[in-house]
Amino acid sequence: MDEQSMNAACERVGYELGYKVERDVNLGVGLLDQVWSRQDHPNLPELKIAFRILASGGDVNPDVITAGALRALWSDCDHVVFLVPDPGTQKSIQGKVRAFDAIGGFVQLHKYITTITLSELVGGLKAETRTTETIA
Predict the structure, then answer these.
(1) Mean pLDDT of 114-127
(2) Own/partner pairs for 35-40, CB < 8 Å, 24+ apart?
C-alpha cells in the first residue's frame, strides 16, 4: 500500500473516532504526517496524537524513529504513533524503542510511542463500533 492511501485511511479513522485531523502539520520543529486532536473537557488540555506514516516495510533506520519521536514530543504532542504496513516493520520499530529504553535516561520512549499496522488501525475501528452498539 502506498503512503497516500495509508494517509487517507488513517485520516478516515481519526474522523470516525471524533478527532480533528490535520495533515502535513508543522508545529514548530518539523513536518508531522498527521496530528489528531480532541478536547474532551473544557478544564482539560487538548489531547494531541502525532502520526508518522511509513509506507515502506522492512527494517526501519533508528534515525527515522528518533526524528519522528522527538519531532512529535517537541511539538507538544502527547503521543506519537508509527503507522506501518506490516507486522515485520512493527517489530523492527518496537525492538529499537526497547533498545533506546535499555540505555536509560529521563524519557522512557515506550510510554510515548506506539507502533500499529494499518490493518490493526482499521480493524480496531470496526471492533470499536461493534462494542458501542446497544443491545435491547
Answers:
(1) 81
(2) 35/75, 35/77
* Distance from the Cα of residue 106 to its chain's centroid: 22
Is 88 part of a structural domain of the chain? Answer: yes
> Widest CA span of the chain, in angstroms?
53
Is the whole model's pTM more than 0.70, yes or no? Answer: yes
**What would the pLDDT profile of 50-86 be if each residue is shown by its tens digit?**
999 988 878 888 888 888 888 888 888 888 899 998 8
Q: Can you list the positions of beta strands (E) in 27-106?
A: 31-38, 47-53, 79-84
Distance CA(99)–CA(131), nearest Å, equals 36
State how far Cα 127 lies from the chain centre. 18
Containing domain of residue 82, as a range? 3-131
Write the CA distances from 87 to 34, 57, 90, 125, integer angstroms: 21, 9, 5, 18
